[in-house]
């Protein structure tokens, strides 16, 4: 399980992170320039649904509205054992960031044409956190270049493994 180191010096503590969901498509569609950790305001049944892993981050994004940051289009399924007052699965959810961070991100998104995309949801000390990324969209040729580089890396690793005796070309 991944861990985060907090603090410095002798009092370094390791915290356990339980990843709920990841947005892998975001890494394919965008260049990730910077990442931020944000809290998120949720209801009780939404947290229970997240513990069950029922969240979809595809096509979701964050934006600033009246000085506050909101996460849009993140689908958190209604809790199975909840009541009829379960919140809307696609409702905008408030992200908890410092005012300076919000204003800095707002300025970058407005001036440079960047996008705020959630990369993953995870639990830290029982609290739900969102990893937000400041991203720039990839063009089609960038995606092709990335796929070609990944294929080349995979082939090199295969060749290295073959030379080390992991397996031979064909043992037929």
Structural overview:
By secondary structure, this protein is α+β, with helices and mostly antiparallel strands. The strands form 2 sheets. An 8-stranded antiparallel sheet has the order 1-2-9-10-3-8-6-5. 30% of the residues lie in helices and 37% in strands. It has a single domain (19-163), classed as Small protein B (Small Protein B, Chain: A, Beta Barrel), CATH 2.40.280.10.
Which helices and strands, and how do they pair?
Blueprint: E1 3-6, E2 13-22, H1 24-29, E3 30-40, H2 44-51, E4 55-56, E5 61-65, E6 68-72, E7 75-76, E8 93-96, H3 99-112, E9 115-124, E10 127-137, H4 140-163
Antiparallel strand pairs: 1-2, 2-9, 3-8, 3-10, 4-7, 5-6, 6-8, 9-10
Condensed summary:
The chain has one domain: Beta Barrel (Small Protein B, Chain: A). It is built from four helices and ten strands; from the N terminus they run ββαβαβββββαββα. The chain is globular.
What keyword list fits this structure?
single chain, two-stranded antiparallel ribbon, 10 strands, 37% strand, disordered N terminus, 172 residues, alpha+beta, Small Protein B, Chain: A
